[in-house]
Amino acid sequence: MGPGRRNASSEYExxxxxxxxxxxxxxxxxxxxxxxxxxxxxxxxxxxxxxKRGWLSFVGLGADFSHLNLADPFHMRRKGTTVWxxxxxxxxxxxxxxxxxxxxxxxxxxAIPHRKDLVVATAATSAIGSALMGVLSNFxxxxxxxxxxxxxxxxxxxxxxxIPW
Length: 165
Known about the structure:
Elements: E1 17-22, E2 29-34, H1 48-53, H2 55-58, H3 76-79, H4 83-97, H5 100-108, H6 115-137, H7 147-160
Antiparallel strand pairs: 1-2
Helix pairs in contact: 5-6, 5-7
């Protein structure tokens, strides 16, 4: 590389075959990397650090519950936010996706006659899913039943094919 430039290093550098090309004028440096897909001594695309963390972390199921503490719950101080701000954001998220509760119940009631139960089921699954997403992953995502799949089930499967729900 040219003078004054340094290589960008990563934790995966041992697992990558790198090729560095320098432009004749020295103004541009291109680094092409190719990671091998499999090796006899490694798992599929597993780096040394991923092997150290274990199989669950490699597949994305490793748990980190450091956000569940009393000193800084959900890392709010570290992120520069307050409980009041987070409550307002949660209220806005709820109001944004609240239309799903009656609309999903209306779609499903075409095939299932218990409309009031469908409203409660949609609200309960949305609340439980959103709470679990916040507590377990520390991501502020609101979760609710997908209306597209519910419409397919109600109109195509139950009403169209005649399969009882």
